[in-house]
Design a protein that fits this description.
The protein is an alpha/beta fold and 291 residues long. It folds into three domains: 125 residues, no CATH class; 32 residues, no CATH class; 110 residues, no CATH class. Helix content is 35%, strand content 16%. The chain has twelve helices and nine strands. Strands 1, 2, 3, 4, 5 and 9 form a six-stranded mixed beta sheet that branches. The chain has a three-stranded antiparallel beta sheet with strand order 6-7-8, covered by helices on one side. A hairpin with a 2-residue loop joins strand 6 and strand 7. It comes from Candidatus Chloroploca mongolica.
Length: 291
Amino acid sequence: MTTSLETQLRSRAHDLLAEGVVELFLGYRQGSNPLRVAPFVARTPLETAKLVWNAVCVPNLAGTLAKHAGQRIGVALKACDAQTLRELLKLNQLERSRLYLIGIGCEGMANPEAITDAAPGRVTGLAEAGPDLVITTADDVVRRERGTLLLTKCATCTGMPTDFCDEWLGEAPPAPPTVPAERFAAVQALATLAPAERLAFWSEHLSRCTLCYACQTVCPLCFCKECALTLERDHPRRQAREPMTIFAYHLMRAYHLADRCTGCDECSRVCPEDIPLNLICRKLEQDRSQV
């Protein structure tokens, strides 16, 4: 089902390309099932018909922009994407003059896993109906309040200034006056554990790490062409997956991002071992906010 925002987005992207304002337009296309989308670059006005905007447009588009640096490109941004893009601009990784930014009145993205858990079977369709999501399976249709299915990062979104974008589609949600306390709830829960218990928590999770570097690859703010922390595939320490090598990689990577991570949680989303990597950077974010 095409939403009003999706129709508006396709129309604006079509016009921007047709009028030569941009050479490319970056958004999302539908993936292999109703709960998957993927970054998509429209290069002609006709290709904008493939753009989608729905409740599972989760991937951060800011990192994809770097692949097209030097070209005039339009992009549809959620608040979390915009926060990351603002950091990339501060770090001189992109030129603001070559970007046309369309902010989307995002109501928060739903967690695909939560949608799957709420469905009585394989999900075959997903639609928005006011504050609810309508989930279709082969045998049933269920409605769930969108707010109960949100990603954690969306439930504690810090918003973005409305003057950051060139234009807005939908209603721009007001940024909360302060960072929601719930944003650091998981970090605070860990802090209540004894040091030995915290060590056990991270030892258990990081024991599953295969050093695949998916977290590094997806991170929009990991943009070094050569990383001192990355080991070659056939390196003995990568093959051995020594605990100290794994601990050192994740801690050093977190400290490298300490003053720039925006909490987009892409690292946790793509981790094939479901390691809560976002908690490391969220702890540093909490410490930074208290300085």
